């Protein structure tokens, strides 16, 4: 049996098909011993190993063995039950991680957008409780500036210079400030600022249009609008507050599989998501 490449398991009536090498990631685990016929509790019935345990939770066990990462759904809550399953299978590195729920549980993230109109310009300030979200938004948002001369914006063929990207103003890691619209420069010269928000390719100058695109981008990114209000002390700024459950950064398991070892494991944060 130890030479078998493909192993079929029936766990609580749920069928799993995997490689023997996947089950042997941790040589001292019961699953590894099962493949080697060293654990008599797991019975081979019609070519399948029968395991009288929770099949739904075993899917997370299999995901862990295949990826060496702990990645659970946002609404997952059965940490203690999954920990018991990991202990049953002898996967103690996983069990130890599951005992530290604060590393794995998603956390509530708050984001606030402030928007105000002053003459021909619109001002935006975005504050977020998670700095990585602000970093990601800063990569999506680009402000372009250019000068235009002529009869004004109503001129059918105004003379416009090429647009130049501007760096976003970042007062801290948790917020950003930018504006769009037009202002007089000298004579009949206008300075215009456009905003583009990826993946949308448009360059928008109207503040209301930029606000609509920004709010739509946040909603598509999993945020939920929970309140709107006016802040009179800031030129009657409109304030939009959003929230979402942000998944914890993934945990990788670094396994020391030197000859004769028992699969000593250490956890480290996955670099896929950088949490701060």
Notes on the protein architecture:
This protein is an alpha+beta fold and 276 residues long. The protein is 25% helix and 39% strand. The protein contains 8 helices and 17 strands. A hairpin with a 2-residue loop joins strand 6 and strand 7. The radius of gyration is 28 Å and the shape is elongated. The two termini are 47 Å apart. Residues 151-159, 256-267 and 269-276 have low confidence and may be disordered.
Secondary structure: elements and pairs:
Elements: E1 6-11, E2 14-19, H1 20-23, H2 30-35, E3 43-45, E4 48-51, H3 55-67, E5 69-70, H4 79-88, H5 92-98, H6 101-104, E6 107-118, E7 121-128, H7 131-140, E8 141-149, E9 159-160, E10 164-166, E11 169-172, E12 175-184, E13 190-197, H8 207-220, E14 224-231, E15 237-246, E16 251-256, E17 264-269
Helix pairs in contact: 3-4, 4-5
Short key terms for the protein model shown above:
about 280 residues; alpha+beta; four-stranded mixed sheet
The Rg value, from CA coordinates, equals 28 Å
**Distinct helical segment count:** 8
Would you tell me the overall average pLDDT? 82
Could you name the ranges where pLDDT drops below 50 across 5 or more consecutive residues?
151-159, 256-267, 269-276
Q: Report the principal-axis shape.
A: elongated
**Percent range of helical residues:** 10-25%
SSE order: EEHHEEHEHHHEEHEEEEEEHEEEE
**Oligomer designation:** single chain
**Through-space gap between termini:** 47 Å
Number of strands: 17
Helix/strand-derived category reads alpha+beta
Strand content: 35-45%
Could you give a short account of the major beta sheet?
Answer: 10 strands, antiparallel
């Amino acid at each position: 049996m130890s030479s078998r490449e493909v192993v079929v398991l029936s766990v609580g009536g749920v069928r799993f098909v995997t490689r023997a090498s996947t089950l042997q990631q941790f040589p001292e685990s019961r699953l590894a011993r099962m493949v080697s016929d060293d654990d008599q509790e797991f019975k081979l019935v019609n070519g399948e190993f029968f395991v009288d345990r929770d099949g739904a939770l075993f899917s997370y066990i299999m995901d862990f063995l295949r990826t060496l990462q702990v990645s659970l759904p946002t609404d997952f809550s059965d940490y203690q039950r999954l920990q018991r399953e990991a202990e049953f299978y002898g996967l103690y590195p996983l069990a130890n991680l599951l005992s530290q729920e604060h590393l794995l549980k998603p956390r509530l993230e708050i984001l606030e957008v402030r928007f105000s109109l002053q003459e021909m310009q619109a001002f935006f300030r975005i504050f977020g409780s998670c700095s990585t979200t602000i970093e990601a938004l800063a990569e999506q948002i680009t402000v372009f500036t250019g000068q235009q001369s002529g009869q004004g914006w109503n001129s059918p063929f105004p003379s416009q210079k090429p647009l130049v990207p501007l760096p976003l103003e970042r007062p801290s890691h948790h917020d950003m400030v930018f504006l769009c619209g037009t202002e007089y420069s000298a004579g009949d010269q206008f300075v215009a600022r456009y905003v583009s928000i990826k993946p949308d390719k448009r360059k928008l100058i109207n503040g209301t249009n930029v606000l609509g695109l920004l709010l739509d981008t946040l909603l598509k990114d999993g945020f939920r609008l929970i309140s709107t209000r006016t802040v009179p002390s800031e030129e009657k700024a409109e304030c939009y507050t959003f929230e979402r459950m942000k998944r914890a950064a993934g945990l990788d398991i670094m396994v020391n599989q030197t000859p004769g070892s028992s699969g000593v494991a250490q956890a480290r944060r996955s670099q896929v998501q950088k949490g701060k």
